Amino acid sequence: MTPSTAKDAGAPVIYSRALGLDICDRTAAGASPRSLRGAPFHVRQSELRGWLDGNPEFAALFGLACAAGVAPQRYGLTRAAEFCRRVADGAMVSEACDQEGMPSLATLQWWTHRRPEFAAMLAAALDAQSRRLADQVTAIADAASPETLQISRMRIAARQWLAARLARQTPEVPGRPPAVAETEGWPAGLVVEAAEF
After folding, report:
1. Residue pLDDT, tens place only, 90-141
2. Contact criterion met (CB below 8 Å) for 86 and 99
């Protein structure tokens, strides 16, 4: 029985994951929850509230879709690649989101969740940004002198903190091991030592 025939018969619409994702996609594109009453969904507000109360996964997705729908940005491979290029070139994610024609942070999360190819591109971009930070640390350490030791330490510590944040923000991509940050603040496998002069 399809949602429209269920509605015609007066029966409630039964939740399914596919239906929930369709509803979330439409909401992320800017549709209001009231529009779900019409074709093709025919979902009553009471049914939607019941699904949100009874299904934490759907509630989380719907909340994310609503946030993305405030300023909807249509997904396109060209736009996604340009966003990831900016991140790989060193722009912070929030900074890249603030630029003209780029997705909002909420839309970015929606794309990451719904588009595996985008999640992979973003993971690679954040990886590149981490490597850039490691190169900067090497340059700062090499340029340090007794007079600049304290400021060099501060700059290195800031980059360590940022690299650890990037490791935690990197989306999980199927087939790729998750990024794990060590307690010292650097991604696993990267060791940095500061020596006294």
Report:
1. 899 999 999 998 999 999 999 998 999 999 999 999 989 988 888 999 999 9
2. yes
Residues 6+ apart with CB under 8 A from 196: 149
Residue 113, Ramachandran bin (φ over 0: left; ψ between -120 and 50: alpha; else beta): alpha
Closest by alpha carbon to 70, among 31, 98, 22, 101? 31
Give DSSP secondary structure letters for 21-81.
Answer: HHHHHHHHTT--GGGGGSTTT---HHHHHHHHHH-HHHHHHHHHHHHHHHS-----HHHHH
11-64 tens-digit pLDDT? 788 899 999 999 999 999 888 878 888 888 888 888 999 999 999 999 999 998
